[in-house]
Amino acid sequence: xxxxxxxxxxxxxxSRQLEWQKTEFYGLIHFGMxxxxxxxxxxxxxxxxxxxxxxxxxxxxxxxxxxxxxxxxILNCKPHDGFCLWNTACTDYSVMNADNWDxxxxxxxxxxxxxxxxxxxxxxxSVSPLDRHEPLFGSxxxxxxxxxxxxxxxxxNYGDIFCVRLxxxxxxxxxxxxxxxxxxxxxxxxxxxxxxxxxxxxxPDVRWYGNEWGVCRKNEWSVVPKRLCIDEAIKNxxxxxxxxxxxxxxxxLGGRKFIKNDTEFIWYPAEVxxxxxxxxxxxxxxxxxxxxxxxxxxxxxxxxxxxxxxxxGISPDKDGKFPDIDTQILRSFGYDLxxxxxxxxxxxxxxxxxxxxxPEYSVENLRSTGDDKxxxxxxxxxxxxxxxxxxxxxxxxxxxxxxxxxNGQHVEEFELFVDEGNGKFKRYDKSGVVxxxxxxxxxxxxxxxxxxxxxxxxxxxxxxxIIMY
Length: 469
Description:
The chain has eleven helices and 16 strands. By secondary structure, it is an alpha/beta fold. The protein has two domains: 3-340, TIM Barrel (Alpha-Beta Barrel), CATH 3.20.20; 350-468, Galactose-binding domain-like (Jelly Rolls, Sandwich). Strand 4 (163-166), helix 7 and strand 5 (198-201) form a beta-alpha-beta unit. The chain is globular.
């Protein structure tokens, strides 16, 4: 194994990244002045009194997200127009001055965070440094201090935050000045007040996937060269010669060819961000574009089932109600998701391996998830195999593999074989990386045995579980 592969194999995640990865699937709610203007971007001039979500219910929002199978909710608390969805002392442009909204409690961040805790969902925030309303925008340090105060309010008054999503959009201020964001100062505030929160999009913990259409890579690496970190991206963006550079989505960020000349690596897992509709905010004209349940399932397999997380954008109408079509699809998707992984076909199967590193790393450890017990092959086993033999033929259509990513990401290629009862194995799937989770989706079939052969891996292979559904 080359020096590059050895370093990559020994690159590990932080505790906050591990907890974020377990979230797997969560929602991003866009709700604000844009809903009342029927736009994607607002100019920050619409008065707060025009914000009147008469049918808003934080409990209904969270119930919908939970029924969809989401494990967390991120609220876009301050979009580019500067309108704040919480009780802030930093600006008068907030829900607290929505005087025509006849309710005693207008702090949407407070209401939503409380309901998330009640229903067992993680709560996160999304905020944009761009501010089309705030007069300080473009003033440099003075505006950055203002934005840090906004961040501090959100990170202090609303309980545990699992994710802080920082949008990187920028534009000249009203008087033509360019606001230079103090990214590292923002990070310091977040680390101090919410040390367990990951910072995503324009952050060092979770990597933006590269598009907003759900176009996914076949192999997604959590370990990537340090040159891809957000620090380098910020530095490059500030270089004049890179101003006209176009974004592009690389198809491979961690394979052997891509990393062969690198010497420094980071754990930088990917988040697939995509809206259930064509737009991020609700528009009646977008009803035709709502993704079907089947499209959501495909997205789930290609993101959560391929070592990434899925953040699905959803948005209510201006009254604060989610449209019937979105609601029906989300609930149906969540129902199917629960059923698909409710029956473990392999729960009473016999597990055997070509080798075991030691009794502590027994193949029996692959039966269950959620503990620290793992299987490792012997050091001299170059192509280790796992065989899962059922007591009798049974139907399955999914095999879920999970690495013990506490010790890094190692699998580069594996093959899956099935024995449909004639005593012979037939190859049905060939895949690359595993990482936190890889879901092999096959046609439904009756099988007696399943064999998995690990063809290529870097470092010490360390598998957490392999389960048939």
